[in-house]
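re the bet — no i am not wrong, look at it urself. input seq straight from the record:
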Amino acid sequence: MIGGEILIWLHLCAMAAYVGAQFGVIYMLIPAAETAPNEAARRKALIAGFKFYNPFTIAVLGIIVITGAMRLTDLKASMKFDYFARIGGPLELKLALAFLLIFIQTYITFGLAFRIGRQEEVAAHGDGDAFTVEQLNSMLRRIRAMVVDNLPGMQKLASQHGWVLQLCHFHLLLKLQAQRRGMRYTLRGGSVREEIHRLIRSALGLPAGDRLTKILERLRRLSRGDCGTQRVQTTVREFLKGLQFYRSYLAHPHLGLPHTTNSVESMGRLLRKMFRSSRSGSNPKSVLLWATAFLRMRLHLKCNGHQIN
């Protein structure tokens, strides 16, 4: 009992520390940087604050994840077979929010804050110029589209920046499958679930027309009735709500959008492997040149069996 209480307090303290760090950045660090007399002083103030902010936020997020997982293990042991029935729904929501928070914080820490500080160090050694505000904004302006999973906030993010949003087909269909002993099988227990899987696969690729209209109407009827588990029913409703974003690759063929995030994840893995085994990532300009050359060597890319530009 004492160990469980310690985990709860550690979890709460870590959450409070994380929220406090965000308030510190918003209401202390950023206002202090805005009062700097010039751009160099502003960058220096931001970098000084981020040197504490980056490792601190990643550390407390790690504590939140570890203590939460340990506490869930205790609950699973005490509830046994009633575990998923009693807390399955809230747990899914909590895990989704936790992973979204981790993704956002990782992007802020390594994609923005760390990159600004790294470029300043490169400029100090004479290997390149420091980032300006215009350069930082240009990173966002060059983005035309984003291919992501259907996570909360992605539609709003794409709308704010005017990006085309393509949602991942692979992870949508994966939700309609169950995992057993490390392998994935289609959901058992009735022809309705199999029909939903078949209808969604068809709706992802069919052109607009009578056949697509009939399939969507059938899915709407199934989502209002008994279509298996509540999880499957929720997945169908989410698909119908975000249908246009699953079919963005059809509405914008000139962008050559992949249907899934698999090709992006695979290319990122190859780039990381190249940077680890050579000095090609010694500075941002070198990273850009090597990554551009590496990507151009891949004249043909396949995403989940489909050829993309």
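see?? The chain has a mean pLDDT of 78. told u. also DSSP finds 13 helices and six strands in the chain. so pay up
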